[in-house]
Specification:
8 helices, single chain, mainly alpha, 9 strands, 49% helix
């Protein structure tokens, strides 16, 4: 949902007071707010419907605003994410269940566990590498090309990877995409990617993501924000 910051502050306060909440221990995690975006978290469809009704009521009656159901979506995470379930409505219109949802430029997939989709980030990465190769026409030194790809293309591939828990499926997908770069630049098998990385002093994609995760978790654990400290234990 996208609305004004005044509405967000008011809605968060009302949701906390309503008792329609998700908790980790005593910490409230019923909704996630960043800038003007609001994500509602609920453990059941009944709770989710009640939270949406409350937000819609506040928006309409107190702030003279309304939500656009076309800009709202539901992504299900949990063991029963594939099961058929009842519709969740916003002002009489059903909100669509989706396979992936984009939030803050990361794509969150439905599934048994919280995970990110690699399809979109891989697509952005491949387009950036292809554009770079097309513009340079392979006339640059291989080391210069590797530096350019590392500086400008790699961030597209691993964006958001530091804030999720390690999963072999996600990391293998990222590694496979990154290793293709070595074939494009050096014309060698991707099985030699780690050897070339060691020879050129470039971090392997696995070690780079691991370092990013360690730094991110350390920063979260040292934060003065208690919710960030709590989240750091689940990364």
């Amino acid at each position: 949902m996208y609305q004004g910051s005044g509405f967000l502050r008011h809605s968060v306060g009302q949701l906390k007071e309503s008792g329609l909440v998700c908790h980790i221990g005593s910490m409230y995690f019923g909704c996630v707010v960043y800038a003007d975006d609001l994500v509602i978290l609920a453990a059941s469809l009944t709770m989710l419907q009640a939270m949406i009704d409350l937000c819609a009521c506040i928006a309409e009656n107190e702030l003279n605003m309304s939500f656009n159901v076309k800009n709202s979506a539901i992504v299900r995470i949990g063991p029963a994410f594939r099961h058929l379930c009842a519709c969740v409505n916003l002002k009489g219109c059903a909100i669509h269940y989706v396979e992936t949802v984009r939030y803050l430029d990361v794509h969150i997939r439905c599934g048994k566990y919280f995970r990110l989709s690699t399809k979109e980030s891989k697509g952005d990465f491949y387009r950036a590498v292809n554009a770079l190769c097309s513009k340079t026409k392979y006339k640059l030194d291989n080391m210069v090309m590797l530096h350019l790809v590392t500086s400008f293309c790699r961030p597209l591939l691993v964006y958001g990877a530091e804030c999720i828990k390690f999963t072999p499926r996600y990391d293998n997908a990222v590694k496979s995409s990154w290793n293709c770069v070595f074939w494009r630049i050096f014309r060698v098998s991707d099985s030699l990617a780690d050897d070339i990385s060691q020879y050129t002093g470039t971090s392997t994609i696995t070690s780079f993501v691991l370092q990013q995760r360690i730094r991110f978790r350390q920063k979260m654990s040292c934060s003065l924000n208690m919710s960030e400290k709590v989240c750091s234990f689940f990364i």
